[in-house]
Amino acid sequence: MNPIVFTKNKKSPSIYPVTLCLLTLLLSLSLSPAVFSDEVSPKSAAPLLQSDLYHEPIQPLRQTEGLNPHKISLGERLFHDLRLGRDNDMACSSCHNINDNGADHYTRAPGRDGTTLDVNTLTVFNSSRNHRQFWDGRARNLEEQIDTVVTNPKEFATTWPSIIGKLEQDTDYARTFPEIYPKGITANNIRNAIATFVRSLITVNSPFDRFLLGDSDAISPQAKAGYRLFKAYGCVACHQGSNVGGNLFVKLGVFKDYFAVRGNPTRADLGRFNVTGKARDRHVFRVPSLRLVALTPPYFHDGRVTTLAEAVSIMAEHQLGRTIPGQDIQHIVTFLESLPGEYRGQPLGHKP
Ligand code: HEC
Ligand code: HEC
Fold it and tell me: Which domains, ranges and CATH numbers included, belong to the chain?
Protein backbone atom coordinates (compact mmCIF):
# COMPACT_ATOMS: atom_id res chain seq x y z
CA MET A 1 0.00 0.00 0.00
CA ASN A 2 1.26 3.45 -0.79
CA PRO A 3 1.77 5.15 2.62
CA ILE A 4 1.21 8.65 1.25
CA VAL A 5 -2.17 7.77 -0.13
CA PHE A 6 -3.07 5.99 3.09
CA THR A 7 -2.37 9.12 5.14
CA LYS A 8 -4.50 11.12 2.77
CA ASN A 9 -7.44 8.75 3.10
CA LYS A 10 -7.12 8.80 6.86
CA LYS A 11 -6.79 12.53 7.04
CA SER A 12 -9.56 13.89 4.89
CA PRO A 13 -12.49 12.65 7.00
CA SER A 14 -11.12 14.23 10.13
CA ILE A 15 -11.86 17.78 8.95
CA TYR A 16 -15.26 17.57 10.57
CA PRO A 17 -14.87 15.43 13.66
CA VAL A 18 -17.66 13.21 14.83
CA THR A 19 -18.26 15.49 17.80
CA LEU A 20 -19.18 18.31 15.47
CA CYS A 21 -21.54 16.04 13.58
CA LEU A 22 -23.28 14.93 16.74
CA LEU A 23 -23.59 18.51 17.93
CA THR A 24 -25.07 19.52 14.59
CA LEU A 25 -27.48 16.62 14.77
CA LEU A 26 -28.55 17.44 18.33
CA LEU A 27 -28.88 21.09 17.47
CA SER A 28 -30.99 20.37 14.43
CA LEU A 29 -33.29 18.08 16.38
CA SER A 30 -33.87 20.59 19.14
CA LEU A 31 -34.83 23.45 16.83
CA SER A 32 -38.45 23.99 15.90
CA PRO A 33 -39.61 23.94 12.26
CA ALA A 34 -40.59 27.62 12.49
CA VAL A 35 -36.90 28.54 12.50
CA PHE A 36 -36.64 27.27 8.94
CA SER A 37 -39.53 29.11 7.37
CA ASP A 38 -39.07 31.81 4.72
CA GLU A 39 -35.82 30.34 3.48
CA VAL A 40 -35.50 32.34 0.28
CA SER A 41 -34.74 35.49 2.22
CA PRO A 42 -32.33 38.24 1.18
CA LYS A 43 -29.95 36.89 3.79
CA SER A 44 -29.77 33.51 2.10
CA ALA A 45 -28.83 35.23 -1.15
CA ALA A 46 -25.85 37.00 0.43
CA PRO A 47 -22.50 35.74 -0.90
CA LEU A 48 -20.31 33.70 1.39
CA LEU A 49 -17.22 35.62 2.34
CA GLN A 50 -13.89 33.94 1.59
CA SER A 51 -13.07 33.87 5.31
CA ASP A 52 -16.38 32.10 6.03
CA LEU A 53 -15.44 29.18 3.80
CA TYR A 54 -13.57 27.34 6.53
CA HIS A 55 -16.64 27.35 8.74
CA GLU A 56 -18.83 25.72 6.12
CA PRO A 57 -19.61 22.01 6.63
CA ILE A 58 -19.12 21.40 2.90
CA GLN A 59 -15.81 22.20 1.27
CA PRO A 60 -14.83 22.51 -2.41
CA LEU A 61 -13.41 19.42 -4.12
CA ARG A 62 -9.87 19.81 -5.39
CA GLN A 63 -8.03 17.70 -7.94
CA THR A 64 -5.69 15.06 -6.48
CA GLU A 65 -2.13 16.37 -6.72
CA GLY A 66 0.97 14.42 -7.65
CA LEU A 67 -0.50 11.46 -9.56
CA ASN A 68 1.79 9.98 -12.21
CA PRO A 69 0.16 10.73 -15.60
CA HIS A 70 1.62 7.55 -17.15
CA LYS A 71 -0.01 5.45 -14.42
CA ILE A 72 -3.29 7.30 -14.97
CA SER A 73 -3.36 6.51 -18.69
CA LEU A 74 -2.30 2.89 -18.18
CA GLY A 75 -4.96 2.57 -15.48
CA GLU A 76 -7.55 4.12 -17.78
CA ARG A 77 -6.80 1.51 -20.42
CA LEU A 78 -7.03 -1.33 -17.91
CA PHE A 79 -10.30 0.10 -16.53
CA HIS A 80 -11.84 -0.33 -20.00
CA ASP A 81 -10.19 -3.68 -20.81
CA LEU A 82 -12.71 -6.50 -21.22
CA ARG A 83 -9.96 -9.11 -20.90
CA LEU A 84 -10.02 -8.62 -17.14
CA GLY A 85 -13.29 -10.54 -17.05
CA ARG A 86 -13.09 -14.37 -16.99
CA ASP A 87 -14.43 -14.77 -20.55
CA ASN A 88 -12.92 -11.51 -21.89
CA ASP A 89 -16.37 -10.05 -21.47
CA MET A 90 -16.33 -7.63 -18.55
CA ALA A 91 -14.40 -4.49 -17.62
CA CYS A 92 -14.71 -1.98 -14.79
CA SER A 93 -16.36 0.29 -17.35
CA SER A 94 -19.11 -2.30 -17.93
CA CYS A 95 -20.74 -0.94 -14.77
CA HIS A 96 -18.95 2.39 -14.29
CA ASN A 97 -19.53 4.64 -17.31
CA ILE A 98 -16.96 7.44 -17.20
CA ASN A 99 -18.75 9.32 -20.00
CA ASP A 100 -21.89 9.49 -17.90
CA ASN A 101 -21.97 9.44 -14.08
CA GLY A 102 -19.27 6.90 -13.23
CA ALA A 103 -21.99 4.36 -12.44
CA ASP A 104 -24.92 2.84 -14.37
CA HIS A 105 -28.66 3.41 -14.21
CA TYR A 106 -29.71 -0.03 -13.03
CA THR A 107 -31.52 -0.72 -9.77
CA ARG A 108 -28.89 -3.41 -9.36
CA ALA A 109 -26.49 -4.13 -12.21
CA PRO A 110 -26.60 -7.43 -14.09
CA GLY A 111 -23.73 -9.71 -13.08
CA ARG A 112 -22.23 -12.80 -14.73
CA ASP A 113 -24.38 -15.82 -15.69
CA GLY A 114 -27.76 -14.11 -15.40
CA THR A 115 -27.17 -12.93 -11.82
CA THR A 116 -27.96 -9.52 -10.37
CA LEU A 117 -25.50 -7.74 -8.08
CA ASP A 118 -26.44 -7.40 -4.41
CA VAL A 119 -26.56 -3.59 -4.25
CA ASN A 120 -26.91 -0.49 -6.41
CA THR A 121 -23.75 0.59 -8.26
CA LEU A 122 -21.78 3.41 -6.63
CA THR A 123 -20.05 5.98 -8.80
CA VAL A 124 -16.27 5.82 -9.18
CA PHE A 125 -16.04 9.62 -9.39
CA ASN A 126 -14.65 11.07 -6.14
CA SER A 127 -14.70 7.59 -4.57
CA SER A 128 -11.06 7.97 -3.52
CA ARG A 129 -12.23 10.65 -1.07
CA ASN A 130 -14.43 8.20 0.86
CA HIS A 131 -12.80 6.82 4.02
CA ARG A 132 -13.79 3.25 3.07
CA GLN A 133 -15.06 1.73 -0.17
CA PHE A 134 -18.50 0.17 -0.78
CA TRP A 135 -21.88 0.65 0.89
CA ASP A 136 -20.77 -1.45 3.85
CA GLY A 137 -17.20 -0.11 3.82
CA ARG A 138 -15.72 -3.62 3.54
CA ALA A 139 -12.77 -2.46 1.40
CA ARG A 140 -10.31 -0.21 3.20
CA ASN A 141 -8.99 1.37 0.00
CA LEU A 142 -9.21 1.22 -3.79
CA GLU A 143 -6.61 -1.52 -4.09
CA GLU A 144 -8.62 -3.85 -1.84
CA GLN A 145 -11.76 -2.88 -3.71
CA ILE A 146 -10.22 -4.04 -7.02
CA ASP A 147 -9.30 -7.44 -5.52
CA THR A 148 -12.94 -8.08 -4.65
CA VAL A 149 -14.05 -7.41 -8.25
CA VAL A 150 -11.44 -9.82 -9.66
CA THR A 151 -12.58 -12.78 -7.56
CA ASN A 152 -16.32 -12.01 -7.24
CA PRO A 153 -18.13 -14.85 -9.10
CA LYS A 154 -20.73 -12.34 -10.35
CA GLU A 155 -18.05 -9.94 -11.65
CA PHE A 156 -14.66 -10.84 -13.15
CA ALA A 157 -14.83 -14.35 -11.59
CA THR A 158 -11.15 -14.97 -12.23
CA THR A 159 -7.69 -14.93 -10.64
CA TRP A 160 -4.71 -12.60 -10.89
CA PRO A 161 -2.47 -15.22 -12.60
CA SER A 162 -5.12 -15.64 -15.30
CA ILE A 163 -5.39 -11.88 -15.87
CA ILE A 164 -1.59 -11.47 -15.89
CA GLY A 165 -1.26 -14.32 -18.41
CA LYS A 166 -3.67 -12.56 -20.78
CA LEU A 167 -2.11 -9.12 -20.42
CA GLU A 168 1.39 -10.51 -21.05
CA GLN A 169 0.20 -11.54 -24.55
CA ASP A 170 -0.48 -7.88 -25.34
CA THR A 171 2.67 -6.35 -26.85
CA ASP A 172 1.64 -2.84 -25.86
CA TYR A 173 1.17 -3.74 -22.16
CA ALA A 174 4.40 -5.82 -22.28
CA ARG A 175 6.21 -2.67 -23.39
CA THR A 176 4.39 -0.06 -21.26
CA PHE A 177 4.33 -1.78 -17.84
CA PRO A 178 8.14 -2.08 -17.42
CA GLU A 179 8.53 1.57 -18.48
CA ILE A 180 6.46 2.59 -15.44
CA TYR A 181 6.93 -0.30 -13.01
CA PRO A 182 10.33 -2.06 -12.68
CA LYS A 183 8.63 -5.39 -11.89
CA GLY A 184 6.42 -5.22 -15.00
CA ILE A 185 2.98 -6.84 -15.16
CA THR A 186 2.12 -7.95 -11.61
CA ALA A 187 -1.12 -7.95 -9.62
CA ASN A 188 0.19 -5.12 -7.46
CA ASN A 189 1.04 -2.99 -10.47
CA ILE A 190 -2.28 -3.62 -12.23
CA ARG A 191 -4.10 -2.67 -9.00
CA ASN A 192 -1.91 0.39 -8.58
CA ALA A 193 -2.49 1.62 -12.14
CA ILE A 194 -6.28 1.19 -11.94
CA ALA A 195 -6.41 2.78 -8.48
CA THR A 196 -4.32 5.71 -9.71
CA PHE A 197 -6.76 6.26 -12.58
CA VAL A 198 -9.69 6.11 -10.14
CA ARG A 199 -7.92 8.63 -7.86
CA SER A 200 -7.79 11.01 -10.81
CA LEU A 201 -11.58 10.88 -11.20
CA ILE A 202 -12.42 14.04 -9.27
CA THR A 203 -15.22 16.37 -10.29
CA VAL A 204 -14.08 19.95 -9.83
CA ASN A 205 -15.47 23.42 -10.45
CA SER A 206 -19.10 22.63 -9.66
CA PRO A 207 -21.53 25.55 -9.47
CA PHE A 208 -21.79 24.96 -5.72
CA ASP A 209 -18.00 24.98 -5.25
CA ARG A 210 -17.76 28.21 -7.24
CA PHE A 211 -20.41 29.64 -4.92
CA LEU A 212 -18.43 28.49 -1.86
CA LEU A 213 -15.32 30.14 -3.30
CA GLY A 214 -17.08 33.48 -3.56
CA ASP A 215 -19.04 33.60 -6.83
CA SER A 216 -22.45 34.43 -5.38
CA ASP A 217 -24.17 34.14 -8.76
CA ALA A 218 -22.93 30.61 -9.42
CA ILE A 219 -26.11 29.03 -8.02
CA SER A 220 -29.76 30.08 -7.93
CA PRO A 221 -31.54 31.56 -4.89
CA GLN A 222 -33.45 28.24 -4.65
CA ALA A 223 -30.19 26.30 -4.45
CA LYS A 224 -28.92 28.70 -1.77
CA ALA A 225 -32.14 28.18 0.17
CA GLY A 226 -31.68 24.44 -0.30
CA TYR A 227 -28.18 24.60 1.17
CA ARG A 228 -29.44 26.51 4.20
CA LEU A 229 -32.17 23.90 4.69
CA PHE A 230 -29.66 21.07 4.21
CA LYS A 231 -27.66 22.55 7.10
CA ALA A 232 -30.64 23.58 9.23
CA TYR A 233 -32.47 20.26 9.11
CA GLY A 234 -29.24 18.49 10.03
CA CYS A 235 -28.44 16.58 6.83
CA VAL A 236 -24.88 17.87 7.32
CA ALA A 237 -24.58 15.83 10.52
CA CYS A 238 -23.99 12.87 8.23
CA HIS A 239 -23.36 14.33 4.76
CA GLN A 240 -20.46 16.77 4.99
CA GLY A 241 -16.86 17.44 3.94
CA SER A 242 -15.77 17.91 0.35
CA ASN A 243 -17.54 14.73 -0.72
CA VAL A 244 -20.78 15.63 1.08
CA GLY A 245 -20.61 12.26 2.85
CA GLY A 246 -18.37 9.22 2.60
CA ASN A 247 -16.71 9.58 5.99
CA LEU A 248 -19.04 8.02 8.60
CA PHE A 249 -20.83 4.77 9.34
CA VAL A 250 -24.46 5.29 10.34
CA LYS A 251 -27.54 3.15 10.76
CA LEU A 252 -30.15 3.41 8.02
CA GLY A 253 -33.31 3.96 10.04
CA VAL A 254 -32.29 6.04 13.08
CA PHE A 255 -35.88 7.15 13.73
CA LYS A 256 -37.95 4.73 11.69
CA ASP A 257 -37.37 1.15 10.53
CA TYR A 258 -36.61 1.45 6.80
CA PHE A 259 -36.65 -2.31 6.28
CA ALA A 260 -39.96 -2.98 8.00
CA VAL A 261 -41.55 -0.41 5.67
CA ARG A 262 -39.89 -1.87 2.57
CA GLY A 263 -40.18 -5.62 3.25
CA ASN A 264 -38.26 -8.46 1.52
CA PRO A 265 -35.12 -8.39 3.70
CA THR A 266 -31.84 -9.32 2.00
CA ARG A 267 -28.39 -10.17 3.34
CA ALA A 268 -27.04 -6.91 1.89
CA ASP A 269 -29.54 -4.99 4.07
CA LEU A 270 -27.49 -6.00 7.12
CA GLY A 271 -24.77 -3.60 5.91
CA ARG A 272 -21.70 -3.47 8.12
CA PHE A 273 -22.95 -6.39 10.19
CA ASN A 274 -21.77 -8.58 7.28
CA VAL A 275 -18.25 -7.20 7.80
CA THR A 276 -17.94 -7.08 11.61
CA GLY A 277 -20.55 -9.60 12.83
CA LYS A 278 -21.46 -7.16 15.64
CA ALA A 279 -25.14 -6.71 16.51
CA ARG A 280 -24.75 -2.94 16.71
CA ASP A 281 -23.68 -2.88 13.04
CA ARG A 282 -26.96 -4.28 11.72
CA HIS A 283 -28.30 -1.95 9.00
CA VAL A 284 -25.27 0.32 9.40
CA PHE A 285 -23.93 1.73 6.13
CA ARG A 286 -21.21 4.11 5.07
CA VAL A 287 -22.94 7.44 4.56
CA PRO A 288 -22.76 7.85 0.78
CA SER A 289 -21.27 10.88 -0.95
CA LEU A 290 -23.96 13.18 -2.36
CA ARG A 291 -21.57 14.91 -4.79
CA LEU A 292 -23.05 13.25 -7.86
CA VAL A 293 -26.34 12.17 -6.38
CA ALA A 294 -28.30 14.30 -8.85
CA LEU A 295 -26.86 12.17 -11.68
CA THR A 296 -26.98 8.70 -10.11
CA PRO A 297 -30.57 7.52 -9.74
CA PRO A 298 -31.91 5.14 -8.56
CA TYR A 299 -31.14 5.62 -4.87
CA PHE A 300 -30.10 3.82 -1.71
CA HIS A 301 -28.12 0.59 -1.44
CA ASP A 302 -31.16 -1.31 -2.72
CA GLY A 303 -31.72 1.07 -5.65
CA ARG A 304 -35.37 1.17 -4.65
CA VAL A 305 -36.10 4.88 -4.99
CA THR A 306 -36.21 6.53 -8.41
CA THR A 307 -36.48 10.26 -7.65
CA LEU A 308 -34.24 12.50 -5.60
CA ALA A 309 -37.25 14.19 -4.00
CA GLU A 310 -38.45 10.86 -2.63
CA ALA A 311 -34.94 9.99 -1.41
CA VAL A 312 -34.74 13.31 0.48
CA SER A 313 -38.15 12.78 2.02
CA ILE A 314 -37.22 9.23 3.16
CA MET A 315 -34.00 10.56 4.67
CA ALA A 316 -35.85 13.25 6.65
CA GLU A 317 -38.30 10.71 7.99
CA HIS A 318 -35.90 7.85 8.76
CA GLN A 319 -32.67 9.66 9.68
CA LEU A 320 -34.01 12.86 11.26
CA GLY A 321 -37.50 11.91 12.42
CA ARG A 322 -39.10 14.77 10.54
CA THR A 323 -41.52 15.41 7.74
CA ILE A 324 -40.21 18.12 5.46
CA PRO A 325 -42.67 20.26 3.47
CA GLY A 326 -42.67 19.75 -0.30
CA GLN A 327 -41.20 23.14 -1.10
CA ASP A 328 -38.25 22.61 1.22
CA ILE A 329 -37.63 19.26 -0.45
CA GLN A 330 -37.59 20.97 -3.85
CA HIS A 331 -35.04 23.52 -2.61
CA ILE A 332 -32.83 20.77 -1.21
CA VAL A 333 -33.04 18.89 -4.54
CA THR A 334 -32.04 22.10 -6.38
CA PHE A 335 -29.07 22.44 -4.03
CA LEU A 336 -28.05 18.81 -4.67
CA GLU A 337 -28.23 19.51 -8.41
CA SER A 338 -25.56 22.21 -8.00
CA LEU A 339 -23.00 19.74 -6.57
CA PRO A 340 -21.75 17.83 -9.66
CA GLY A 341 -18.66 19.39 -11.21
CA GLU A 342 -16.57 18.79 -14.30
CA TYR A 343 -14.22 16.02 -15.37
CA ARG A 344 -11.56 16.87 -17.96
CA GLY A 345 -13.21 20.24 -18.42
CA GLN A 346 -16.64 18.83 -19.29
CA PRO A 347 -19.77 18.74 -17.17
CA LEU A 348 -20.76 15.22 -16.15
CA GLY A 349 -23.92 13.48 -17.18
CA HIS A 350 -25.36 11.46 -19.99
CA LYS A 351 -24.37 12.68 -23.46
CA PRO A 352 -26.72 11.53 -26.19
C1 HEC B 1 -20.78 -5.93 -12.75
C2 HEC B 1 -20.74 -4.55 -12.34
C3 HEC B 1 -19.45 -3.98 -11.78
C4 HEC B 1 -18.16 -4.13 -12.27
C5 HEC B 1 -17.70 -4.96 -13.42
C6 HEC B 1 -17.32 -3.30 -11.43
N7 HEC B 1 -18.06 -2.66 -10.49
FE8 HEC B 1 -17.39 -1.29 -9.16
N9 HEC B 1 -19.16 -1.34 -8.22
C10 HEC B 1 -20.27 -2.05 -8.63
C11 HEC B 1 -21.25 -2.07 -7.56
C12 HEC B 1 -22.61 -2.76 -7.58
C13 HEC B 1 -20.69 -1.35 -6.48
C14 HEC B 1 -21.25 -1.20 -5.08
C15 HEC B 1 -20.85 -2.51 -4.37
C16 HEC B 1 -20.99 -2.51 -2.89
O17 HEC B 1 -21.01 -1.43 -2.28
O18 HEC B 1 -21.02 -3.59 -2.29
C19 HEC B 1 -19.38 -0.90 -6.94
C20 HEC B 1 -18.51 -0.12 -6.19
C21 HEC B 1 -17.30 0.35 -6.63
C22 HEC B 1 -16.46 1.28 -5.92
C23 HEC B 1 -16.75 1.87 -4.54
C24 HEC B 1 -17.21 3.30 -4.61
C25 HEC B 1 -17.51 3.82 -3.23
O26 HEC B 1 -17.96 4.95 -3.12
O27 HEC B 1 -17.33 3.09 -2.25
C28 HEC B 1 -15.36 1.50 -6.68
C29 HEC B 1 -14.20 2.43 -6.38
C30 HEC B 1 -15.50 0.68 -7.86
N31 HEC B 1 -16.69 0.00 -7.80
C32 HEC B 1 -14.53 0.55 -8.85
C33 HEC B 1 -14.53 -0.50 -9.74
C34 HEC B 1 -13.36 -0.92 -10.50
C35 HEC B 1 -11.99 -0.24 -10.44
C36 HEC B 1 -13.74 -1.99 -11.24
C37 HEC B 1 -12.88 -2.84 -12.14
C38 HEC B 1 -11.72 -3.48 -11.47
C39 HEC B 1 -15.16 -2.23 -10.97
N40 HEC B 1 -15.57 -1.33 -10.03
C41 HEC B 1 -15.95 -3.19 -11.59
C42 HEC B 1 -20.42 -2.66 -9.86
C43 HEC B 1 -19.37 -3.06 -10.64
C1 HEC C 1 -28.02 10.11 10.57
C2 HEC C 1 -27.27 10.19 9.31
C3 HEC C 1 -27.95 10.77 8.09
C4 HEC C 1 -28.66 11.93 8.01
C5 HEC C 1 -28.97 12.92 9.13
C6 HEC C 1 -29.05 12.07 6.63
N7 HEC C 1 -28.57 11.02 5.89
FE8 HEC C 1 -28.80 10.76 3.89
N9 HEC C 1 -27.96 8.93 4.04
C10 HEC C 1 -27.48 8.34 5.19
C11 HEC C 1 -27.15 6.97 4.94
C12 HEC C 1 -26.57 5.97 5.95
C13 HEC C 1 -27.49 6.71 3.60
C14 HEC C 1 -27.35 5.36 2.85
C15 HEC C 1 -28.65 4.62 2.96
C16 HEC C 1 -28.59 3.26 2.29
O17 HEC C 1 -27.90 2.38 2.78
O18 HEC C 1 -29.22 3.04 1.28
C19 HEC C 1 -27.98 7.98 3.06
C20 HEC C 1 -28.41 8.15 1.73
C21 HEC C 1 -28.85 9.36 1.21
C22 HEC C 1 -29.23 9.56 -0.17
C23 HEC C 1 -29.15 8.53 -1.28
C24 HEC C 1 -27.76 8.48 -1.83
C25 HEC C 1 -27.56 7.50 -2.95
O26 HEC C 1 -26.55 7.61 -3.65
O27 HEC C 1 -28.36 6.59 -3.15
C28 HEC C 1 -29.64 10.88 -0.29
C29 HEC C 1 -30.13 11.57 -1.53
C30 HEC C 1 -29.54 11.47 1.03
N31 HEC C 1 -29.03 10.52 1.91
C32 HEC C 1 -29.88 12.76 1.31
C33 HEC C 1 -30.04 13.24 2.62
C34 HEC C 1 -30.70 14.49 2.96
C35 HEC C 1 -31.22 15.51 1.97
C36 HEC C 1 -30.70 14.57 4.33
C37 HEC C 1 -31.37 15.61 5.19
C38 HEC C 1 -32.81 15.76 4.98
C39 HEC C 1 -30.02 13.38 4.83
N40 HEC C 1 -29.66 12.60 3.77
C41 HEC C 1 -29.80 13.13 6.16
C42 HEC C 1 -27.31 8.99 6.40
C43 HEC C 1 -27.93 10.18 6.75
Answer: 7-62+204-248+287-343 (1.10.760.10), 69-199 (1.10.760.10)
